[in-house]
Each structure stands twice: as C-alpha cells, then as structure tokens.
C-alpha cells in the first residue's frame, strides 16, 4: 500500500513537474536612448520594465500554451536616440530569442525604424522585418500606422491638449491670447506645438499672437522672450524639453513675463524639470497619462524607484506594456520554444492587434484598430517642487 | 524699419557682445594651447564643462556660495586640462600630429560620456549672481548677470595678459610659443610650460563654462558641443594663435549670432554663422589677427 502510494505520488509529481517548474524564459527586449542627453528616458523605461518583470515573476511568471509556467526576462538596448543605431539595435534584437521589443524612446528613431518593418502582415511582396514592437515612449502622434507590426501605448497628445485648452477656456474665460515657444530641432516638440497645441488652442478660441523658436542646445533666450513680452499673451505654451524649458522660463522670469496660464510639453512633466528649475516652473500645467493617484500607481512608482528609475508618463507606459504583454502571452498560447519563436512573435502581434482595451495604471486604456492607444490622463501642475494633480477629466 | 526693430537690433547686439565674452574665453583657451604647442585640443570644451560640473557638485552637496562654485569650476577645469595634457599630448609622438588631435577627439567623447552618465543627462540648476538685476536704459535692458559674466571674463583676460606679459612664466610661455627649441636651449622646461598652459587654458574654460551655466541658470551636458564648436569658430575668425583675435572673434560671433537670430530666425541663424566661418577660411584663412610668423 505504501509502495503504491509512493509510486502514485511520484508519477503525479513527474506529470505535474512541467506545470510547476518554471524553467522556461520568455525574453522581452527593451530599447531606446539610455545614454546621451535624453538617456534618462531609456533609463527610466529600463527600470520600469525590470520592476514589472520582477513583479510578474514574483507572482509565478506567465502561463504558456502547454500550461507550464515561464519566467519573464528583459534586457535593455541603447540606441542613443539615433535612428541608424535604433534600426541596428532592432535588427539585433530580432536575431535573438526575444519575443517582442518595447521601445523606442525617441520619435525621430521611431519613424524610420517602423519603416523597416513589414507594412502589412502576410504581404508576401513586402520583405520588411516581421517583429512586434510595442512602443512606450516615442510620443509623436500617428506613428503606429506605418506598420501593422507596431503597437503603441503612448498617450494621445491631440486628445489631451484639446481637453486641456477646453478646460483652460472654461476656467479662465478672460484668457484670449496665446504665445507659443518651440524647440525647433526636436521632432516631438515641433510636432506637438505646430500640430497639437496650436491647433487645440485655436479650436478653443485662443488667438495665437506669436511664436518663439529655439534649438535644443541653445543657451540664450533673450530675443525670444522679448517678442513674448511685447505680445503680452494670456497663455504661454512651451513645447520643449526640460533643459531649454528651464532656460526659457528663467528668461521669462527675468523679463517679468507673467501669463495667466503656463502650459508645458507632456515630456516635461518629469523630475528633470523640477530638478532644473522648480521655482520658475511653479504653476506650469501639463497633461499627463501618469500620476501616482491610486494605490496601484503608487506601488508601481515605488517598485520602479527601487530599481533606480522614476515613473513618469513615459516609463509608466513601459510598466503597462509588460503587464499587457503578460496577458497577451497567456491569451495567445505562446509555446516559448526555440522552434516556435517565429510563430510566437506572430501570435504576440495578432494578440496585440485584437485588443480593444488593456489595463493601465490610471484605468483602462482603449486600444485602437490602428495600433494606437487612448489613455486616461490628468492635468498636473508644478507646485512647491512636486507635480500635483490639478484636474482629473475622468473623475 | 520701425522703432522696435532698432531697439531689438541694439538689444541683440548688446546681449551678443556680453555673452560673446564667454566665447572669447573659450577661444583664448584654444589659441593658448595652439600658440604654445601648435596643436588643437578638441577636448577643451568638454573639459571646461566637466570642470563646471565639479563646481555644481559643491553647490548641490553643500549649497556652496556662488563664488566658491565658480572658483571650483575654474580650478576643476584646470585640473582636467592637466589630465587631458598628460593623456593626449604629453606622450603622443610629436612627429605624428594626428595622434594628439585624434586622442583629443577620443577624450572629448570620453569626458562627454562620463558627464552624461554621472548626471544622467539631467539639467541641474546652476547658481547665478545678479539674476534679477536689470539696468533699464529706455527700452534697452541690460542684464545684470550678463554684465557680471562680461566683467568676470574681462578680469580673467586681464589676469591672463598680466601672466603672459608681466611674469617669468609668461615670458617662458611666449618663448616656447615662438621658438621651442631655442627656449629649451635657454633652460626653459618645455614640458612644464606646456602643462602650465593646459592648466591656465583649463581655468579659462572653466570660467567660460561657469559663466555660460550662470547665464542660463541651468547646467546640462548639451552645453559641451556648443562650447567646442563656438570656440573653434572664434579662433578661426580671430586667428589661431592670437589672443586679441580670440577676444575680438568671440565678441563678433556672439553679436553676429544674435543679430542673425533677429534677422533670419533660429533655423537660419547657424547657417549664417557657418557662412561667416567659411568666408574667413576662404578669404582670410589666417583670421583677423593671424600671424604669419613661423617657428622652428
């Protein structure tokens, strides 16, 4: 009796072994700028991915098609915000056993990089790379349409700024004019001012009374601020990254330019701006798809901080991407073997394509048919050296 | 042309001239080293920036007074200048000039990467003095902090001239610059003079870096490339090896870039500055004050 019990237990244990043992690994590659002057984006994304992977693994990993468990692993590749390096990095990732890549961080990399992917799936005449890319940071609008292998979990700036200017119109009915400041040589900054902020402001009845342009490594803003001072705008919108945002804000302060409302670029709702010029940035309003406003978001922020990063609207997407990919891996029946790699990648692509909704830190993200996302967002403003939620349009 | 255009033109020229003193300092650094060694140190701008970060560390860690921050930036940059000399110039073969040039390019990239890694590429606040002080002359505003930058740079240049023309070290430096072999035969330690030159040029670079960061109020690694490129343009226009040329070149580039910004906008500004460089290289390759003198 004892022997038969032992044999039965051994057989059951052996049968159950593949289910319990997590000896398989699913690799998810991250890539983007983790060095250079915008390296902080990649460093934060890398930390967010590592923290999310650690959380999933601590909870048992992911379930594969055969019911077995696999651990997730992630490695971050640096493209230095350079398009050629980005393309080379993605080709390198595609040659490894990575199932999917999360990245890139820079829109000027994303645009040409998506061009090397197969535009339409199953197009035999298109020899483009067949590898799923799930973008977290590169925010310039509409890029997912370049290839059906591209999916993005970046916020829709058009929606956010449209609602922001509607809200400003409502809360500051006396504000009539707007002056724009734009970092002319950075793709995201240019796009956001000329195609998003300006359009949204005009749509809500603001008169654009002037524009000031400068470059990413400019150090003198007096000419630009002078034009702004003379125009006496009610609203000033600055579409620039933290270094020049800070330079311009200081010059505005020096020239005593005090608009009723100050609006900033989504990417500036980060630690960088507060590190660089918290006093001058006081009161600047920025729409963002991340703020630690609930328990889940707070826990994620703490986990990323423990990995040496910061959770902001960009890196929060990297966290969310890993969580979404876990669900897709489990729903799509990924086998996780070397032989099934190509097929698994296709399953990931198809799984992402069929999503209509995905979990996010601020609530459910809508997944659009063109691969883009519509994410919940809040308006934050800089207050005493911190980003505080000023208004939650979803509440 | 309306009233505001003239005001803007004067204002742009004044701002440009004041800010141009930082370019002049960088240009002097390039020209000092070239004058003494007949070699270009392309790591100079990056070393100046790295030195500025040393001052910043004191500011962020100990909330040090701006005077101490500026001093630490200048001395730090001087120390890094010495390291650059030892790594890129002291032991590289003299008969192969490309060796030191390429070594300095490597050092430029190395220092840049170290600074970016250490700072994570983040912009940090850098102390300014007289930030809110403005002298108003009608519609023309003169920034107190830029006046301070101008004053500091003028003082640095004055000290440099005193060093070069009123001290034994300056005499030795000028001797090595004109006839290194003869200077050596006279008992001058050429290696020591070279080291001192790198140290002094580094200090000037550190002052330029500190003043640039003080004028912006923020320090970021993106400043390094600007310092290098502007410094090179200044020495070409002023004349490589000429200190008065570097001063005039710096002021000229500062004013020209602000005027081009006013007239043609930011997207064309650098095109015209580069065109100016091209015109000088073609029509007057020796620059404004370039000397035709040769040496052994």
UniProtKB/TrEMBL annotation, chain A:
Gene3D superfamilies referenced in this protein's UniProt entry, alphabetically: 3.40.50.2300
Signal peptide: 1-21
Family according to the record: Belongs to the leucine-binding protein family.
Entry keyword Signal: yes
Leucine-binding protein domain segment(s): 25-384
Protein name, per record: Amino acid/amide ABC transporter substrate-binding protein, HAAT family
Keywords for this protein: Amino-acid transport, Signal, Transport
Pfam families, per database record: Peripla_BP_6
Keyword set includes Signal: yes
A biological-process GO annotation: amino acid transport
From TrEMBL, chain B:
GO biological process, one term: amino acid transport
Organism domain of life: Bacteria
Entry GO terms, CC: plasma membrane
InterPro entries: ABC_transp_permease, BCAA_transport_permease
Pfam families: BPD_transp_2
Any GO molecular function: transmembrane transporter activity
Official protein name in the record: Branched-chain amino acid transport system permease protein
Organism: Marivita hallyeonensis
């Amino acid at each position: 009796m004892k022997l038969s019990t032992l044999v039965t237990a051994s057989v059951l244990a052996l049968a159950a072994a593949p289910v319990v043992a997590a000896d398989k690994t699913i690799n998810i590659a991250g890539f983007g700028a983790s060095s250079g002057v915008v390296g902080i984006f990649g460093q934060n994304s890398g930390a967010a991915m590592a923290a999310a992977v650690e959380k999933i693994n601590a909870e048992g990993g992911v379930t594969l098609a055969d019911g077995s468990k696999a651990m997730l692993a992630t490695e971050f590749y640096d493209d230095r915000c350079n398009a050629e390096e980005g393309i080379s990095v993605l080709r390198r990732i595609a040659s490894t056993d990575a199932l999917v890549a999360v990245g890139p961080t820079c829109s000027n990399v994303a645009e040409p990089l998506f061009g090397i992917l197969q535009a339409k799936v199953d197009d035999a005449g298109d020899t483009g790379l067949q590898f799923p890319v799930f973008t977290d940071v590169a925010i310039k609008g509409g890029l997912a349409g370049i290839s059906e292998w591209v999916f993005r979990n970046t916020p829709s700036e058009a929606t956010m700024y449209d609602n922001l200017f509607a809200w400003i119109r409502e809360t500051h009915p006396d504000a009539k004019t707007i002056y724009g400041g734009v970092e002319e040589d950075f793709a995201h900054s240019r796009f956001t001012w000329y195609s998003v902020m300006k359009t949204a402001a005009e749509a809500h009845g603001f008169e654009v009374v002037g524009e000031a342009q400068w470059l990413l490594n400019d150090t003198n803003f007096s000419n630009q601020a002078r034009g702004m001072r003379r125009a006496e705008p009610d609203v000033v919108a600055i579409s620039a990254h933290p270094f020049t945002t800070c330079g311009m804000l200081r010059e505005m302060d020096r020239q005593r330019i005090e608009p009723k409302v100050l609006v900033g670029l989504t990417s500036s709702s980060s630690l960088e701006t507060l590190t660089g010029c918290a006093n001058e940035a006081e009161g600047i309003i920025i729409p963002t798809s991340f703020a630690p406003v609930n328990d889940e978001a707070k826990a994620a922020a703490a986990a990323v901080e423990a990995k040496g990063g910061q959770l902001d609207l960009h890196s929060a997407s990297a966290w969310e991407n890993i969580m979404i990919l876990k669900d897709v891996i489990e729903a799509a029946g990924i086998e996780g073997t070397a032989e099934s790699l190509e097929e698994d990648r296709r399953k990931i692509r198809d799984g992402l394509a069929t999503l209509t909704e995905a979990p996010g830190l601020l609530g459910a993200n809508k997944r659009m048919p063109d691969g883009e996302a519509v994410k919940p967002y809040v308006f934050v403003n800089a207050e005493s050296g911190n980003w505080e939620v000023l208004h939650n349009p979803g509440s | 042309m309306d009233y505001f255009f003239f005001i803007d033109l004067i204002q742009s020229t004044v701002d440009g001239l004041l800010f141009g003193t930082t370019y002049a300092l960088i240009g002097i650094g390039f020209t000092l080293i070239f004058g003494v060694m007949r070699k270009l140190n392309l790591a100079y701008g990056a070393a100046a920036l790295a030195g500025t970060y040393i001052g910043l560390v004191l500011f962020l860690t100990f909330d040090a007074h701006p005077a101490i921050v500026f001093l630490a930036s200048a001395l730090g940059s001087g120390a890094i200048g010495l390291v650059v000399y030892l790594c890129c110039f002291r032991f590289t073969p003299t008969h192969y000039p490309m060796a030191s040039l390429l070594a300095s390019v490597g050092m430029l990239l190395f220092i840049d990467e170290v600074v970016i890694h250490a700072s994570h590429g983040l912009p940090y606040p850098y102390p300014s003095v007289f930030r809110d002080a403005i002298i108003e002359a009608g519609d023309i505003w003169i920034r107190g902090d830029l006046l301070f930058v101008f004053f500091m740079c003028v003082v640095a240049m004055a000290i440099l001239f005193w060093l070069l023309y009123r001290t034994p070290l300056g005499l030795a430096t000028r001797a090595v610059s004109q006839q290194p072999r003869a200077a050596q035969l006279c008992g001058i330690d050429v290696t020591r003079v070279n080291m001192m030159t790198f140290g002094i040029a580094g200090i000037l670079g550190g002052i330029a870096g500190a003043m640039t960061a003080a004028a912006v109020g923020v320090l970021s690694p993106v400043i390094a490339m600007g310092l290098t490129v502007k410094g090179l343009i200044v020495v070409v226009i002023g004349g490589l090896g000429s200190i008065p040329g570097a001063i005039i070149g710096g002021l000229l580039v500062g004013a020209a870039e602000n005027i081009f910004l006013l007239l043609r906008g930011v997207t064309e500004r650098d095109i015209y500055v580069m065109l100016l460089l091209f015109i000088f290289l073609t029509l007057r390759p020796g620059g404004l004050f370039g000397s035709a003198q040769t040496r052994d």
